[in-house]
């Protein structure tokens, strides 16, 4: 995956409608994944499952934050 897109490479470029739609969908899906992983981290009987779920919570929370920050700058 390259760093250029059809909408340009300028850091100050506005998001197109389809980009906004993608970001919104990705954020919604990411939040749903975090909530599901939080449930697994607290309810799973297997320690490996709980550990993996907690890693998902941590990683996906970070990615969601980065996506929000990036979208906010556009």
Quickly describe the structure.
This protein has 2 helices and no strands. It is mainly α.
Notes on the protein architecture:
By secondary structure, this protein is mainly alpha-helical. Helices cover 73% and strands 0% of the residues. It is built from two helices and no strands. It has helices at 17-43, 47-73. The longest helix is centred in the middle third of the chain and has 27 residues, at 17-43. Residues 1-10 have low confidence and may be disordered.
Secondary structure: elements and pairs:
Layout: H1 17-43, H2 47-73
Helix pairs in contact: 1-2
Report Rg. Answer: 16 Å
Number of strands: 0
Report the uncertain regions.
1-10
Helicity range = over 70%
Q: Could you give the distance between the termini?
A: 20 Å
């Amino acid at each position: 995956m390259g760093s250029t897109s059809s909408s340009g490479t300028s850091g100050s470029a506005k998001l197109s409608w389809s980009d906004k739609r993608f970001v919104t969908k990705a954020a919604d899906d990411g939040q749903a994944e975090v909530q599901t992983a939080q449930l697994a981290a607290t309810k799973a009987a297997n320690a490996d499952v709980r550990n993996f779920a907690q890693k998902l919570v941590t990683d996906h929370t970070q990615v969601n934050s980065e996506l929000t920050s990036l979208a906010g700058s556009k």
